[in-house]
Protein backbone atom coordinates (compact mmCIF):
# COMPACT_ATOMS: atom_id res chain seq x y z
CA UNK A 1 0.00 0.00 0.00
CA UNK A 2 1.33 3.43 -0.92
CA UNK A 3 1.24 6.13 1.75
CA UNK A 4 0.63 9.72 0.71
CA UNK A 5 2.37 12.40 2.78
CA UNK A 6 0.39 15.56 3.47
CA UNK A 7 2.26 18.78 4.38
CA UNK A 8 1.90 20.14 7.91
CA UNK A 9 0.87 23.83 7.82
CA UNK A 10 2.23 24.67 11.28
CA UNK A 11 4.45 22.05 12.94
CA UNK A 12 5.48 22.62 16.56
CA UNK A 13 8.50 24.91 16.87
CA UNK A 14 11.70 23.09 17.86
CA UNK A 15 12.20 25.06 21.10
CA UNK A 16 8.60 24.48 22.22
CA UNK A 17 8.86 20.80 21.37
CA UNK A 18 12.14 20.37 23.25
CA UNK A 19 10.73 22.10 26.31
CA UNK A 20 7.73 19.78 26.34
CA UNK A 21 9.93 16.71 25.88
CA UNK A 22 11.95 17.55 29.00
CA UNK A 23 9.06 16.25 31.13
CA UNK A 24 6.54 14.46 28.89
CA UNK A 25 4.73 12.42 31.55
CA UNK A 26 2.56 9.70 30.07
CA UNK A 27 -0.28 10.02 27.57
CA UNK A 28 -0.79 13.79 27.60
CA UNK A 29 1.71 15.04 25.01
CA UNK A 30 1.31 14.19 21.32
CA UNK A 31 3.48 14.50 18.23
CA UNK A 32 2.65 16.54 15.13
CA UNK A 33 1.45 13.81 12.78
CA UNK A 34 -0.85 10.83 12.45
CA UNK A 35 -1.51 8.04 9.95
CA UNK A 36 -5.03 7.47 8.64
CA UNK A 37 -6.26 4.60 6.43
CA UNK A 38 -9.90 4.18 5.34
CA UNK A 39 -11.91 1.01 4.88
CA UNK A 40 -15.13 0.52 2.95
CA UNK A 41 -16.79 -2.86 2.54
CA UNK A 42 -16.28 -4.07 -1.02
CA UNK A 43 -13.31 -1.74 -1.56
CA UNK A 44 -11.07 -2.71 1.32
CA UNK A 45 -8.31 -0.62 2.87
CA UNK A 46 -7.34 2.46 0.88
CA UNK A 47 -6.40 6.15 1.05
CA UNK A 48 -3.39 5.79 3.37
CA UNK A 49 -2.08 9.19 4.46
CA UNK A 50 0.60 10.54 6.77
CA UNK A 51 -0.50 14.02 7.70
CA UNK A 52 -0.98 16.61 10.44
CA UNK A 53 -2.51 15.39 13.68
CA UNK A 54 -5.92 17.03 13.89
CA UNK A 55 -9.41 16.61 15.31
CA UNK A 56 -11.67 14.03 13.71
CA UNK A 57 -14.99 14.86 12.13
CA UNK A 58 -17.65 12.26 12.96
CA UNK A 59 -21.30 11.98 12.06
CA UNK A 60 -23.44 11.84 15.25
CA UNK A 61 -24.73 8.48 14.05
CA UNK A 62 -21.26 6.94 13.64
CA UNK A 63 -21.44 3.33 14.78
CA UNK A 64 -18.56 3.62 17.26
CA UNK A 65 -20.53 6.17 19.27
CA UNK A 66 -23.48 3.82 19.70
CA UNK A 67 -22.21 0.23 19.53
CA UNK A 68 -18.57 0.62 20.59
CA UNK A 69 -16.89 -1.08 17.64
CA UNK A 70 -13.38 0.05 18.56
CA UNK A 71 -10.02 -1.63 19.15
CA UNK A 72 -6.48 -0.41 19.80
CA UNK A 73 -2.90 -1.43 20.47
CA UNK A 74 -0.15 -0.05 22.66
CA UNK A 75 3.49 -0.24 21.58
CA UNK A 76 6.69 1.81 21.76
CA UNK A 77 9.61 2.99 19.69
CA UNK A 78 12.88 2.74 21.65
CA UNK A 79 16.14 4.64 21.28
CA UNK A 80 19.08 2.34 20.52
CA UNK A 81 22.66 2.79 21.71
CA UNK A 82 23.75 4.03 18.29
CA UNK A 83 21.01 6.68 18.26
CA UNK A 84 18.65 4.81 15.96
CA UNK A 85 15.09 3.80 16.79
CA UNK A 86 13.50 0.36 16.97
CA UNK A 87 10.18 -1.38 17.63
CA UNK A 88 9.72 -4.37 19.94
CA UNK A 89 7.86 -7.36 18.45
CA UNK A 90 5.54 -5.23 16.28
CA UNK A 91 4.31 -8.30 14.40
CA UNK A 92 2.79 -9.51 17.68
CA UNK A 93 0.92 -6.23 18.05
CA UNK A 94 -0.36 -6.59 14.48
CA UNK A 95 -1.46 -10.15 15.14
CA UNK A 96 -3.24 -9.27 18.39
CA UNK A 97 -4.87 -6.27 16.71
CA UNK A 98 -6.44 -8.59 14.15
CA UNK A 99 -7.51 -11.04 16.84
CA UNK A 100 -9.30 -8.13 18.53
CA UNK A 101 -10.83 -7.16 15.17
CA UNK A 102 -12.21 -10.67 14.75
CA UNK A 103 -13.88 -10.56 18.17
CA UNK A 104 -15.39 -7.14 17.54
CA UNK A 105 -16.70 -8.04 14.04
CA UNK A 106 -14.30 -5.61 12.37
CA UNK A 107 -12.16 -6.04 9.24
CA UNK A 108 -8.61 -7.31 9.54
CA UNK A 109 -5.81 -5.07 8.36
CA UNK A 110 -2.82 -6.75 6.68
CA UNK A 111 0.01 -7.11 9.18
CA UNK A 112 2.52 -5.53 6.81
CA UNK A 113 0.24 -2.48 6.40
CA UNK A 114 -0.15 -2.19 10.20
CA UNK A 115 3.62 -2.25 10.71
CA UNK A 116 4.33 0.10 7.80
CA UNK A 117 1.84 2.61 9.18
CA UNK A 118 3.73 2.61 12.48
CA UNK A 119 7.08 2.91 10.70
CA UNK A 120 5.82 5.85 8.66
CA UNK A 121 4.72 7.75 11.75
CA UNK A 122 7.95 7.14 13.65
CA UNK A 123 9.95 8.28 10.63
CA UNK A 124 8.12 11.61 10.33
CA UNK A 125 8.00 12.29 14.08
CA UNK A 126 11.34 10.88 15.23
CA UNK A 127 12.31 14.32 16.61
CA UNK A 128 9.55 13.84 19.19
CA UNK A 129 11.53 11.17 21.02
CA UNK A 130 11.84 12.41 24.63
CA UNK A 131 15.16 13.33 26.16
CA UNK A 132 14.33 11.99 29.66
CA UNK A 133 16.14 8.91 30.92
CA UNK A 134 14.20 5.80 29.96
CA UNK A 135 11.89 7.75 27.67
CA UNK A 136 10.15 6.25 24.65
CA UNK A 137 7.76 7.15 21.87
CA UNK A 138 4.47 5.49 22.79
CA UNK A 139 2.47 4.47 19.71
CA UNK A 140 -1.29 4.00 19.64
CA UNK A 141 -2.73 2.29 16.54
CA UNK A 142 -6.53 2.09 16.72
CA UNK A 143 -9.55 1.36 14.57
CA UNK A 144 -13.18 2.39 14.89
CA UNK A 145 -16.45 2.05 13.01
CA UNK A 146 -17.15 5.30 11.16
CA UNK A 147 -20.28 4.39 9.22
CA UNK A 148 -23.32 6.51 10.08
CA UNK A 149 -26.22 4.18 10.86
CA UNK A 150 -28.31 3.07 13.84
CA UNK A 151 -29.05 -0.53 12.92
CA UNK A 152 -27.44 -3.18 15.13
CA UNK A 153 -24.98 -4.89 12.78
CA UNK A 154 -21.27 -4.69 12.02
CA UNK A 155 -20.40 -1.42 10.31
CA UNK A 156 -19.30 -1.28 6.68
CA UNK A 157 -16.87 1.65 7.06
CA UNK A 158 -13.88 2.02 9.38
CA UNK A 159 -10.85 4.19 10.04
CA UNK A 160 -7.44 2.92 11.12
CA UNK A 161 -5.32 5.61 12.76
CA UNK A 162 -1.90 5.73 14.42
CA UNK A 163 -0.88 8.53 16.79
CA UNK A 164 2.28 8.98 18.86
CA UNK A 165 2.86 10.23 22.40
CA UNK A 166 6.31 10.94 23.88
CA UNK A 167 6.40 9.09 27.20
CA UNK A 168 8.30 9.23 30.45
CA UNK A 169 7.53 6.99 33.43
CA UNK A 170 4.11 5.33 33.59
CA UNK A 171 3.78 5.62 37.37
CA UNK A 172 4.22 9.19 38.58
CA UNK A 173 4.57 8.29 42.24
CA UNK A 174 8.17 7.19 41.77
CA UNK A 175 7.77 4.42 44.39
CA UNK A 176 9.88 1.28 43.84
CA UNK A 177 6.83 -0.99 43.97
CA UNK A 178 3.10 -0.51 43.40
CA UNK A 179 0.26 -1.01 45.85
CA UNK A 180 -2.84 -2.70 44.45
CA UNK A 181 -6.47 -2.92 45.55
CA UNK A 182 -8.50 -6.12 45.22
CA UNK A 183 -11.76 -5.37 43.39
CA UNK A 184 -14.73 -6.64 45.43
CA UNK A 185 -17.87 -5.57 43.60
CA UNK A 186 -16.61 -5.41 40.02
CA UNK A 187 -15.18 -7.78 37.44
CA UNK A 188 -13.30 -6.96 34.27
CA UNK A 189 -14.55 -9.70 31.94
CA UNK A 190 -16.39 -13.02 31.71
CA UNK A 191 -15.81 -16.13 29.62
CA UNK A 192 -17.40 -15.63 26.24
CA UNK A 193 -17.03 -11.87 26.54
CA UNK A 194 -14.40 -9.49 25.15
CA UNK A 195 -11.75 -9.87 27.84
CA UNK A 196 -9.10 -11.16 25.43
CA UNK A 197 -9.69 -8.31 22.96
CA UNK A 198 -7.98 -4.95 23.35
CA UNK A 199 -11.15 -2.91 23.12
CA UNK A 200 -12.08 0.27 24.93
CA UNK A 201 -15.11 -1.19 26.68
CA UNK A 202 -12.91 -3.43 28.81
CA UNK A 203 -11.02 -0.42 30.08
CA UNK A 204 -14.21 1.59 30.61
CA UNK A 205 -15.43 -1.21 32.89
CA UNK A 206 -12.25 -0.89 34.95
CA UNK A 207 -12.51 2.85 35.62
CA UNK A 208 -14.85 2.76 38.62
CA UNK A 209 -12.84 0.10 40.51
CA UNK A 210 -9.61 1.88 39.50
CA UNK A 211 -10.97 5.10 40.98
CA UNK A 212 -11.88 3.15 44.10
CA UNK A 213 -8.31 1.84 44.30
CA UNK A 214 -6.87 5.34 44.08
CA UNK A 215 -9.19 6.52 46.88
CA UNK A 216 -7.79 3.68 48.99
CA UNK A 217 -4.26 4.91 48.39
CA UNK A 218 -3.43 2.27 45.78
CA UNK A 219 -1.88 2.54 42.33
CA UNK A 220 -3.80 -0.20 40.53
CA UNK A 221 -6.74 -2.57 40.91
CA UNK A 222 -6.54 -6.36 40.57
CA UNK A 223 -9.56 -8.23 39.22
CA UNK A 224 -10.84 -11.65 40.27
CA UNK A 225 -12.80 -14.07 38.11
CA UNK A 226 -16.49 -13.38 37.52
CA UNK A 227 -17.82 -16.77 38.64
CA UNK A 228 -16.17 -17.79 41.92
CA UNK A 229 -14.68 -14.39 42.72
CA UNK A 230 -11.46 -15.92 43.99
CA UNK A 231 -9.12 -16.55 41.03
CA UNK A 232 -6.68 -13.76 40.20
CA UNK A 233 -6.93 -12.54 36.62
CA UNK A 234 -5.05 -9.29 35.89
CA UNK A 235 -4.65 -5.67 36.85
CA UNK A 236 -6.51 -2.90 35.06
CA UNK A 237 -3.87 -2.85 32.34
CA UNK A 238 -1.17 -5.39 33.24
CA UNK A 239 -0.61 -9.14 33.60
CA UNK A 240 0.72 -10.71 36.81
CA UNK A 241 3.48 -13.19 37.72
CA UNK A 242 4.04 -14.88 41.09
CA UNK A 243 7.60 -15.97 41.94
CA UNK A 244 7.91 -18.93 44.34
CA UNK A 245 10.83 -19.98 46.52
CA UNK A 246 11.07 -23.38 44.79
CA UNK A 247 12.06 -21.80 41.46
CA UNK A 248 8.63 -21.88 39.87
CA UNK A 249 6.67 -18.92 38.57
CA UNK A 250 2.87 -18.85 38.22
CA UNK A 251 0.88 -16.64 35.87
CA UNK A 252 -2.90 -16.79 35.30
CA UNK A 253 -3.79 -18.78 32.15
CA UNK A 254 -5.23 -17.30 28.96
CA UNK A 255 -8.82 -18.53 29.23
CA UNK A 256 -10.43 -15.75 27.19
CA UNK A 257 -10.97 -13.34 30.08
CA UNK A 258 -7.56 -11.67 30.21
CA UNK A 259 -5.46 -9.93 27.59
CA UNK A 260 -2.66 -12.03 26.03
CA UNK A 261 0.09 -9.54 26.80
CA UNK A 262 3.13 -9.32 24.53
CA UNK A 263 5.30 -8.40 27.50
CA UNK A 264 3.76 -11.38 29.33
CA UNK A 265 4.73 -13.72 26.50
CA UNK A 266 8.25 -12.27 26.40
CA UNK A 267 8.72 -12.71 30.15
CA UNK A 268 7.62 -16.35 29.99
CA UNK A 269 10.40 -17.01 27.49
CA UNK A 270 12.99 -15.07 29.49
CA UNK A 271 12.02 -16.81 32.74
CA UNK A 272 12.42 -20.24 31.16
CA UNK A 273 15.82 -19.21 29.85
CA UNK A 274 16.72 -18.43 33.47
CA UNK A 275 16.00 -22.08 34.26
CA UNK A 276 12.72 -21.36 36.02
CA UNK A 277 9.55 -23.40 35.57
CA UNK A 278 6.65 -21.22 34.43
CA UNK A 279 3.18 -22.57 35.13
CA UNK A 280 0.13 -21.00 33.53
CA UNK A 281 -2.49 -21.97 36.07
CA UNK A 282 -5.22 -20.62 38.32
CA UNK A 283 -4.03 -18.88 41.48
CA UNK A 284 -6.44 -17.64 44.14
CA UNK A 285 -6.37 -14.47 46.18
CA UNK A 286 -6.43 -16.54 49.40
CA UNK A 287 -3.48 -18.63 48.22
CA UNK A 288 -1.59 -15.46 47.34
CA UNK A 289 -1.97 -14.18 50.90
CA UNK A 290 -1.14 -17.56 52.42
CA UNK A 291 1.99 -17.97 50.30
CA UNK A 292 3.19 -14.49 51.29
CA UNK A 293 2.62 -15.20 54.99
CA UNK A 294 4.40 -18.56 54.81
CA UNK A 295 7.32 -17.18 52.82
CA UNK A 296 6.61 -19.50 49.91
CA UNK A 297 6.04 -16.55 47.58
CA UNK A 298 9.05 -14.30 47.13
CA UNK A 299 7.96 -11.72 44.54
CA UNK A 300 4.99 -10.56 42.51
CA UNK A 301 5.49 -8.59 39.33
CA UNK A 302 3.12 -6.84 36.95
CA UNK A 303 3.97 -6.33 33.31
CA UNK A 304 2.74 -4.47 30.26
CA UNK A 305 3.94 -2.26 27.41
CA UNK A 306 3.56 0.99 29.32
CA UNK A 307 4.89 -0.10 32.72
CA UNK A 308 7.31 -2.80 31.39
CA UNK A 309 8.04 -4.93 34.51
CA UNK A 310 6.86 -3.43 37.79
CA UNK A 311 7.11 -4.97 41.28
CA UNK A 312 3.97 -5.32 43.39
CA UNK A 313 4.77 -4.45 46.99
CA UNK A 314 1.46 -4.37 48.86
CA UNK A 315 -1.99 -5.86 48.31
CA UNK A 316 -4.97 -4.24 50.05
CA UNK A 317 -8.65 -5.14 50.45
CA UNK A 318 -11.47 -4.46 52.94
CA UNK A 319 -10.09 -7.40 54.96
CA UNK A 320 -6.72 -5.75 55.43
CA UNK A 321 -3.48 -5.81 53.53
CA UNK A 322 -0.31 -7.84 53.16
CA UNK A 323 3.19 -6.92 52.03
CA UNK A 324 5.24 -9.01 49.63
CA UNK A 325 8.81 -9.48 50.83
CA UNK A 326 10.27 -6.16 51.90
CA UNK A 327 7.62 -4.27 49.95
CA UNK A 328 10.14 -3.23 47.30
CA UNK A 329 11.43 -4.68 44.03
CA UNK A 330 12.64 -8.25 44.24
CA UNK A 331 15.84 -9.62 42.76
CA UNK A 332 14.21 -11.51 39.88
CA UNK A 333 11.84 -8.66 39.02
CA UNK A 334 14.75 -6.22 38.80
CA UNK A 335 16.82 -8.66 36.74
CA UNK A 336 14.04 -9.31 34.25
CA UNK A 337 13.22 -5.63 33.88
CA UNK A 338 16.87 -4.83 33.23
CA UNK A 339 17.17 -7.61 30.65
CA UNK A 340 13.92 -6.79 28.83
CA UNK A 341 14.65 -3.07 28.71
CA UNK A 342 18.19 -3.90 27.59
CA UNK A 343 16.87 -5.93 24.66
CA UNK A 344 14.40 -3.22 23.71
CA UNK A 345 17.11 -0.55 23.74
CA UNK A 346 19.80 -2.59 22.01
CA UNK A 347 22.03 -2.87 25.09
CA UNK A 348 21.49 -6.62 25.57
CA UNK A 349 21.85 -9.13 22.73
CA UNK A 350 18.54 -9.86 21.02
CA UNK A 351 18.82 -13.60 20.50
CA UNK A 352 15.09 -13.90 19.75
CA UNK A 353 14.87 -11.44 16.85
CA UNK A 354 12.34 -9.36 18.78
CA UNK A 355 13.72 -5.94 17.86
CA UNK A 356 12.88 -4.33 14.51
CA UNK A 357 15.26 -1.52 13.60
CA UNK A 358 13.71 1.52 11.91
Task: Give the tags.
358 residues, alpha+beta, D-amino Acid Aminotransferase, Chain A, domain 1, D-amino Acid Aminotransferase, Chain A, domain 2, 2 domains, nine-stranded mixed sheet, 29% strand, globular
* Stretches with pLDDT under 50, minimum 5 residues: none
| Number of spatially distinct domains | 2
The backbone outline, from C-alpha atoms, is: globular
Could you tell me the number of beta strands? 18
User: What is the CATH architecture annotation of the largest domain?
Assistant: Alpha-Beta Barrel
Query: CATH superfamily name of the largest domain?
Result: D-amino Acid Aminotransferase, subunit A, domain 2
End-to-end Cα distance, whole Å, is: 18 Å
Number of helices: 8
**CATH C-level category of the largest domain:** Alpha Beta
Strand content: 25-35%
Rg from alpha-carbon coordinates: 21 Å
Succession of helices and strands: EHEEHEEEHHEEEHEEEEHEHEEEHE
- Mean pLDDT figure: 95
Could you tell me the CATH topology label of the largest domain. D-amino Acid Aminotransferase, Chain A, domain 2
How helical, in percent, are the residues? Answer: 25-40%
Largest sheet: 9 strands, mixed
- What structural category do the secondary elements indicate? alpha+beta
Cofactor: pyridoxal 5'-phosphate
Pfam family, one: Aminotran_4
Enzyme class: transferase
Protein name: Branched-chain-amino-acid aminotransferase
Describe the protein in words.
The protein is of the alpha+beta class. The chain has 2 domains: 4-167, 2-Layer Sandwich (D-amino Acid Aminotransferase, Chain A, domain 1); 178-344, D-amino Acid Aminotransferase, Chain A, domain 2 (Alpha-Beta Barrel), CATH 3.20.10. Helices cover 26% and strands 29% of the residues. The chain has helices at residues 14-21, 63-67, 90-103, 111-124, 200-215, 262-273, 285-294, 331-344, and strands at 4-5, 33-40, 44-52, 70-72, 75-79, 85-88, 136-145, 157-167, 178-182, 220-224, 232-235, 239-244, 248-251, 277-280, 297-304, 308-317, 320-323, 355-357. The strands form 2 sheets. Strands 1, 2, 3, 4, 5, 6, 7, 8 and 18 form a 9-stranded mixed β-sheet that branches. Strands 9, 10, 11, 12, 13, 14, 15, 16 and 17 form a 9-stranded mixed β-sheet that branches. Helix 3 (90-103) packs across helix 4. It is globular, with a radius of gyration of 21 Å. The two termini are 18 Å apart. The mean pLDDT is 95.
Amino acid sequence: MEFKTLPHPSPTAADARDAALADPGFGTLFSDHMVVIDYVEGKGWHNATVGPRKALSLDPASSVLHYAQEIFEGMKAYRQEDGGLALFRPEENARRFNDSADRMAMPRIPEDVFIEAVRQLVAVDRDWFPSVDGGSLYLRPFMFASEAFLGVRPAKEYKFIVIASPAGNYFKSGVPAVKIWVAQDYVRAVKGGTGAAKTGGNYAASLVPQAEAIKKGCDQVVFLDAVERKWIEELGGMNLFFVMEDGTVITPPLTGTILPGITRNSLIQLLREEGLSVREELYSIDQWKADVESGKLLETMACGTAAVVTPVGTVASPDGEFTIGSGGPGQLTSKLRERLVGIQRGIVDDSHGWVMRL
